[in-house]
Amino acid sequence: MIKPITRSEFESFWPVFSRVIQAQETYAFAPDMALEQAYELWCELPLRTFVYVEQGEVLGSYYIKANAAGPGSHVCNCGYMVSEQARGKGIAQALCEHSRQQALALGFKAMQFNSVVSTNEVAVRLWQKLGFDIVGRVPGAYRHARLGYVDTFVMYKWLADEG
């Protein structure tokens, strides 16, 4: 079930969030970020934040927000995280499809991911399967904990014709 996140659900998701950012393989967030900072970043600053809950356990989450202001405010941006034990079970796809529906309901015309780490091949393949194109490559833009400097992709999908 995908639903708006509560404070207590974020707190139960915090260990997953913390492991993801500490791994320094997919998100450009400070690896020593505290729970309060993470809550503000993930839950308070975006327009909406959702969780995927199954049998009372939070298995994934995403946020949606405008990618830019003014003339660029019709393009949204999302971030997704899925717990390790839930990966490969279609949860990221379900979250992305839900975010597409939310984007359209909120009036967005397109979705853009600004910094998909190129070595995150599972995510890149999934986003491409869901219709996102790689529209840009930023060489060496991410300092991966194990691999050093790797490229990031800008990925984009026009949504307006899907509503």
Which terms summarize this structure?
163 residues, alpha+beta, Aminopeptidase, 7-stranded mixed β-sheet, 4 helices, 7 strands, 31% helix, globular, Mito_N-acetyltransferase, Acyl_CoA_acyltransferase, N-acetyltransferase family protein, GNAT_dom
Number of domains: 1
Q: In one word, what is the shape?
A: globular
How would you write the strand order of the largest sheet?
1-2-3-4-5-7-6
Instruction: Tell how many strands the DSSP assignment holds.
Output: 7
Reported by name, the CATH topology is: Aminopeptidase
Spell the H/E element sequence. EHHEEEHEHEE
Distance between the termini: 22 Å
Helix count from the secondary structure assignment: 4
Helix fraction? 25-40%
- In terms of DSSP E residues, the strand content is 35-45%
Pfam families: Acetyltransf_1
Protein name: N-acetyltransferase family protein
Organism: Oceanimonas smirnovii
Domain N-acetyltransferase: 1-160
Written description of the protein model:
This protein has 163 residues and is α+β, with helices and mostly antiparallel strands. It has a single domain (2-162), classed as Gcn5-related N-acetyltransferase (GNAT) (Aminopeptidase, 3-Layer(aba) Sandwich). Helices cover 31% and strands 36% of the residues. It contains 4 helices and 7 strands. Strands 1-2-3-4-5-7-6 form a 7-stranded mixed sheet, sandwiched between helices.
Brief summary of the model shown:
The protein is an alpha+beta fold and 163 residues long. Helices cover 31% and strands 36% of the residues.
